[in-house]
Amino acid sequence: MLSPWFIYQGESSIDALRPNADLLRSISVCGNPTAEFVSQCHELGIKVHALVGIEGKDGAQFATPEGRRELIAGYLARCEEKGFDGIDLDFESLDRKCRQSYSALLRETAAALHGAGKELSMCVSYVMCTWRSNTTPVADPEAEIDGGWYDPVVIGQTCDVVRVMCYDMISPSSTVVGPVSTAPWARDAMTFWSRHVPKEKLVMGLPAYSRDFVLSGKREILSPYMPA
């Protein structure tokens, strides 16, 4: 399995990358890799971004200029310590009220990282397409879509890599039973993001897994051939 998201699991981790090194331009690493691992990735021609998350859903950590400066200082220090090529923001399911402060975080983080010769990447949700949810379609594919807590335009302006999560179309928390992804649904997500982000910055994240559901009679079954 080839994945731009990579879980560091010790010294043998580099061996998992070598067979597909010519297909990878960058990875986003979860865990606490060593500087040696990052250096080994560079020898294979792979850039390494450190995956970072956030505590809670209220965005309190980046709500103020002081909070953003503290986060960004930590990102820069981590890049300096391990030799990372940049930071990958994996913030998910934040409150809608975070939109303005998150845009400020993106702009300020991008400016600081770019000033240090580093990159900013971000994971973006699969729901940012013409289907506003996994069950409700939008009739007009060109309609403006509320990005919730993030602004697609700002992401396109600030990020060097945008990783689109074209999976979990139907998940255990969904109200229906159906596929993890479909070609029309994933294609639509990438079409949406290509309107805001240059194509050379986009990474299409596809599922290499499936799920089994136990039918309880409380969920509708969604056809694997129709997104909604």
Task: Describe the overall structure.
The relative contact order is 0.12. The chain is an alpha/beta fold and 228 residues long. The strands form two sheets. The protein has a seven-stranded parallel sheet with strand order 1-2-3-4-5-6-8. Strands 7-9 form a two-stranded parallel ribbon. Helix 2 (35-43) links the parallel strand 2 and strand 3. The chain contains six helices and nine strands. The chain has helices at 13-17, 35-43, 65-82, 99-115, 152-158, 183-194, and strands spanning 5-7, 26-30, 47-52, 86-89, 119-124, 161-165, 176-177, 202-205, 220-221. Residues 129-136 and 224-228 have low confidence and may be disordered. Helix content is 30%, strand content 16%.
Short description:
With 228 residues, the protein is of the alpha/beta class. The chain has 6 helices and 9 strands; from the N terminus they run βαβαβαβαβαββαββ. Helices cover 30% and strands 16% of the residues.
Largest sheet report: 7 strands, parallel
Percent range for β-strand residues: 15-25%
> What is the H/E order?
EHEHEHEHEHEEHEE
**Poorly predicted sequence stretches spanning 5 or more consecutive residues:** 129-136, 224-228
The number of helical elements comes to 6
Structural class assignment: alpha/beta
Mean pLDDT: 84
Q: What is the helix content?
A: 25-40%
Q: Largest sheet, order of strands side by side?
A: 1-2-3-4-5-6-8
Rg over CA atoms: 18 Å
Shape: globular
How widely separated are the two ends?
A: 29 Å
Number of strands: 9
Looking at this protein, list some descriptive labels.
alpha/beta, 228 residues, 9 strands, 30% helix, 7-stranded parallel beta sheet, two-stranded parallel ribbon, disordered C terminus, globular
